[in-house]
UniProtKB/TrEMBL annotation:
InterPro entries: HTH-like_dom, Integrase_cat-core, RNaseH-like_sf, RNaseH_sf, Transpos_IS3, Transposase_IS3/IS150/IS904. This is IS3 family transposase. Residues 113-189 form the Integrase catalytic domain. It comes from Pseudomonas sp. MYb327. Pfam families: HTH_21, rve.
Length: 231
């Protein structure tokens, strides 16, 4: 009210009418200005984080990002600031892979959803995932022992191809002794890669793949599920 009236009347008179000290009024004006600037600075930080993530960050990740910079901003405030800045989180689209136009060899499904081996080195599972590191995609292939739920082989590469997964499987065979009858299982849709497991019979590994069903095969097909790293 005082701020509005002082546009038409002297500030001293308006403050006297409302029995408010001029010093208190000016302090209030300064605090309000600082708060407004602080909000604009926060909004700028939000826009910066959002841009650095290629517009992928949502309110939850922006809140975490600001907290990592010792800026206390909750998820609700982050969501509000995003709305004020007119920015939204863009859902990551599936990473495009080019097809060579030739259908890959598919090894027979020997596992038949039996994801409960009774000992180590009976069944290994493989999986590949793609991670955004900086501004580049990095592909990670891993091999786990399905009984121990331990990662026994892994490999990184900028190219998601058969060489990547072969390196992961090769590491696993070097870390573990391969007894006769060892079975290696992967998602049939796994890039190039783990479908080549049938070509590793010289290492005593039998290849098997199938189209995974998320409901039935999830616990076994997700090679990162409840695993620990070993070497």
């Amino acid at each position: 009210m005082i701020a509005e009236l002082r546009e038409s009347f002297p500030t001293a008179i308006v403050c006297r009418v409302f029995d408010v000290k001029r010093s208190s009024f000016y302090e209030w004006i300064q605090r309000r200005t600082k708060l407004r600037l602080s909000r604009e600075e926060l909004k700028s930080k939000v826009v910066e984080l959002h841009s650095e993530s290629r517009e992928a960050m949502g309110s939850r990740m922006i809140s975490k990002g600001l907290k990592s910079q010792n800026i206390a901003v909750g998820r609700e405030l982050a969501r509000t600031l995003m709305k004020e800045a007119n920015i939204v989180s863009k859902q990551r689209q599936p990473h495009p892979f080019r097809s060579k136009g030739v259908e890959a060899f598919v090894a027979p499904n020997l596992l038949k959803r039996n994801f409960k081996p009774t000992a180590v080195d009976q069944v290994w599972c493989g999986d590949v995932t793609s991670l955004m590191v900086g501004k580049r995609w990095v592909h990670l292939a891993i091999v786990i022992d399905l009984f121990a739920r331990r990662v026994i082989g892994w490999a990184f590469s900028l190219v998601n191809d058969a060489n990547l997964v072969s390196k992961a499987l090769r590491m696993a065979t070097e870390v573990r002794t391969c007894p006769a009858g060892l079975m290696f299982h992967s998602d049939q849709g796994c890039q190039g890669g783990f479908n080549r497991s049938s070509q590793h019979l010289d290492r005593g590994v039998y290849g098997t793949t199938r189209r995974m069903d998320a409901k039935n095969d999830g616990p076994g097909s997700d090679a990162f599920s409840r695993c620990t790293l070993t070497s």
